[in-house]
Specification:
about 575 residues; alpha+beta; Alpha-Beta Plaits; Poly(a)-polymerase, middle domain; 5-stranded mixed beta sheet; 17 helices; 14 strands; about 35% helix; about 10% strand
Length: about 575
């Protein structure tokens, strides 16, 4: 799906550029120290050394705890479209008459917006009670009492001189030039991978805006389903999302009509009077159809609404213009949320996981292995599962198998969704950290070598058991769905795309191996390491050397990989001693 939103990536000329539907919001975070934003940032940012895998031993929050706190935070938050010339001091003073403000920041997307979190929900009701529906001269306004406001100045000229008091802090990824400078002047490939992660990962402000957008959509859905919840899932919450990724959300109706046992006393049982339909799918289609109509006709800032109800998983797709997010709304998609929780756990167990996933995804995008257009290409989810599977193969393993996480689970972790066993331990603090200390440089190189030699023609990838298995069908690439085990998450991938992946993986392994022997000096301004792999053609930096080698490409790659295997247990260090590969475990 196309990226049309907050912090849309503009770096890497090697990445295919897509037409933007919205302007990229520029964030101006203005958070006070000691606020919940700082607490969430400490909780969600990776800790420890990504080069060694050593982790902070401080207690880590469960996925459900983070979700709950973020949702409660969003429910105390409002979105305000502000004039371009505004005094921040007067703005905050005006809002403070409705109650104390816990946090706020500004961003730009078709104008200036403020995200303001109050300390109490009652402050929002006070603000709403003092707000009126705008009067139109040539058009008619549809009255809707939301938490999305439009602020106007009674006397704009008085505030012009105070405009500079709003500090600007750009939260977009770096430009192509800046990114390559950062990568080329890093001290090691480990530093390169961590730099890319730091530049691309979701910021605190971006994350808060995603939860707020879901909360605003929930306000609309609650008109029909008062106890519903709209929850983000996928890349927005699993810690693998990059700036500009779409916002996937699902309408959770499970809490509606649940029996309250403490009030069910006596010989009578009261049920809601409801409409019946032939199947769960038809019910989902009807619900989404109505919600889609509401978003289209009554949802402030919701544009381009599409009801895609005949898909395998019916959804409503729309753009939230104020936030800049491209959104997909499904209903009761609990397995997807469980998958998000599993990835959250894997990403939190070892700081090298996210750095490696981000770099492999960026590498794949650079070479058009992944794309925003649905088709026969490998998806980011498939690549993430492949990285997890690879890390399960290390000695000792960096990540545990899903079955081992299931073994650690207790009674409260038990989860069966639509007949699928989705049980695994949810308390991160009960999972023993890995003793593996391999560097990111070694892991990146051996990831490419591993899958450059993987027997895709007969084996499948299975993170539940953490080992290669015979393929159950003839799909070129078979990656077992972690929970719906009869499904192949990469069934769409064609043989040609898989072969392209294998060829690029082999050449990338070769480039990294060759650089161990002859790394370009920083003064040469020649891309090296990860930067070299992200070029539109990985053969560019070695083109002259390859022209001298007249052997067929397949024969050259095979001999080079044999060389890599023979040297895989040796330490390789550059002349200046800054980049060292260690296989010590």
């Amino acid at each position: 799906m196309a990226v049309r939103g907050v912090g849309r990536l503009t770096c890497l000329s090697l990445c295919a550029q897509r037409n933007a539907r919205f302007q990229r919001p520029v964030f101006r975070p203005l958070s006070c120290p000691g606020t919940v934003a700082a607490d969430f940032r400490r909780e969600e940012q990776p800790s420890g050394s990504a080069a060694t895998g050593s982790e902070d031993r401080s207690p880590k929050k469960r996925f459900t705890e983070v979700q709950k706190e973020r949702r409660e935070q969003a429910q105390r938050t409002v979105l305000i479209h502000c004039p371009n010339k505004i005094s921040e001091k007067k703005f905050l003073k005006y809002l403070s008459q409705h109650g104390p403000i816990n946090n706020h920041f500004f961003y730009e997307s078709f104008g200036l917006y403020a995200v303001v979190e109050f300390c109490q929900k009652e402050s929002i009701r006070s603000l709403q009670n003092g707000t009126h529906t705008p009067s139109m001269v040539t058009e008619a306004a549809i009255p809707f009492r939301s938490r999305f406001f439009n602020l106007k100045l009674k006397n704009p000229s008085n505030q012009t001189s105070e405009r500079p008091c709003i500090q600007s802090s750009n939260q977009l990824p770096p430009s192509s030039k800046k990114l390559f400078e950062l990568l080329c002047y890093a001290e090691s490939i480990d530093d390169q991978l961590n730099t890319l992660l730091k530049e691309f990962q979701l910021t605190e402000e971006n994350t808060r805006l995603r939860y707020l957008t879901c909360s605003l959509i929930e306000d609309i859905a609650a008109a029909y389903f008062p106890d519903c919840a709209v929850r983000p899932f996928g890349s927005s919450v699993n810690t693998f999302g990059k700036l500009g990724c779409d916002l996937d959300m699902f309408l959770d109706l499970d809490e509606i009509g649940k029996l309250s046992t403490h009030k069910n006393i006596g010989n009578f049982l009261v049920e809601f009077q409801v409409k019946n339909v032939p199947s769960e799918r038809i019910a989902t289609q009807k619900i989404l159809s109505v919600i889609g109509e509401c978003l289209d006709h009554f949802g402030p800032s919701c544009v381009g609404v599409q009801k895609i109800l005949n898909a395998r998983c019916p959804l409503v797709r729309f753009s939230h213009q104020a936030s800049g997010f491209q959104c997909d709304l499904t209903t009761n998609n609990r397995i997807a949320l469980k998958s998000s929780e599993l990835l959250y756990i894997y990403g939190a167990l070892d700081s090298r996981v996210r750095a490696l996933v981000f770099s492999v995804r960026c590498w794949a995008r650079a070479h058009s292995l992944t794309t925003s257009i649905p088709g026969a290409w490998i998806t980011n989810f498939s690549l993430t599962v492949m990285v997890i599977f690879f890390l399960q193969q290390r000695s000792p393993p960096i990540l545990p198998t899903l079955d081992s996480l299931k073994t650690l689970a207790d009674a409260e972790d038990k989860c069966i969704i639509e007949g699928n066993n989705c049980t695994f331990i949810r308390d991160l603090n009960k999972i023993k950290p890995s003793e593996n200390t391999e560097t990111l440089e070694l892991l990146l190189k051996e990831f490419f070598e591993y899958f450059g030699n993987f027997a895709f023609n007969k084996n499948s990838i299975n993170i539940r058991q953490g080992r290669e298995q015979n393929k159950p069908d003839s799909s070129p690439l078979h990656i077992q769905n972690p929970f719906e085990t009869s499904l192949n998450i990469s069934k769409n991938v064609s043989q040609s795309q898989l072969q392209k992946f294998v060829d690029l993986a082999r050449e990338s392994a070769w480039i990294l191996q060759e650089e161990d022997k002859d790394r370009p000096s920083p003064s040469s301004n020649q891309p090296w390491g990860l930067a070299a792999l992200l070029l539109s053609s990985v053969t560019n930096s070695k083109s002259l050397a390859k022209k001298k080698n007249k052997r067929p490409a397949s024969e050259r790659i095979r001999s080079l990989l044999d060389s890599i295997k023979s040297n895989s247990t040796e330490n390789a260090t550059t002349a200046n001693g800054k980049r060292t590969i260690s296989t010590h475990t």
